[in-house]
Amino acid sequence: MTPEVFVDILRDALFLVILLVCAIIVPSLLVGLMVAIFQAATSINEQTLSFLPRLIVTLLALIIGGHWLVQKLMDYTIRLVSSIPSVVS
């Protein structure tokens, strides 16, 4: 295994992790921002008010995008396992 192959595998894995995490975190981030703007506009300083909407959006993102997330992970794993003979030799 050459260092270039190792770097390519690591780069692909890190890109996949960033993609999967962003698919879950970005919707929650946007809802948290909207709730924060609402709290600032209405002067409501309740800390727990932003928790429930973010939790619901995160769960909805996992429910709606779960199939896509698992499919991406399985595609990467299958590609990685199928490349073992070329990497080892």
Automatic annotation (TrEMBL):
Subcellular location: Cell membrane; Bacterial flagellum basal body
Domain of life the protein comes from: Bacteria
Membrane-spanning residues: 12-39, 51-70
Keywords: Bacterial flagellum, Cell membrane, Cell projection, Cilium, Flagellum, Membrane, Transmembrane, Transmembrane helix
Keyword Calcium: no
UniProt GO cellular component terms: bacterial-type flagellum basal body; plasma membrane
GO biological process, one term: bacterial-type flagellum assembly
A Pfam entry, by short name: Bac_export_3
InterPro entries: Bac_export_3 (IPR002191), FliQ (IPR006305)
Membrane topology: Multi-pass membrane protein
Principal localisation: membrane
Similarity-based family: Belongs to the FliQ/MopD/SpaQ family.
Protein role: Role in flagellar biosynthesis.
Listed name of the protein: Flagellar biosynthetic protein FliQ
Gene source species: Thalassotalea algicola
